[in-house]
Amino acid sequence: MAHESAKETDTMTICAPAARRRGGALAVLAAAAVLALSGCKGGDLVSYDLPSKSARYTFEAQTDTVRTVWEYNSARATKDDAPELSPCMGDAVGGNGAACRPEPLIFLRYDFGLDLDNTVRAGRKHEVGIVAYYQERLTTPPTVTSLKAEVSFDGGRTWRPTATKAAGKNTFTATIDNPRQDQAAKGVGLRISATDGQGNTVRQTIPVAYTLR
Question: Which of 27, 52, 78, 161 has its CA 20 to 30 A from that of 119?
Answer without folding.
Answer: 161
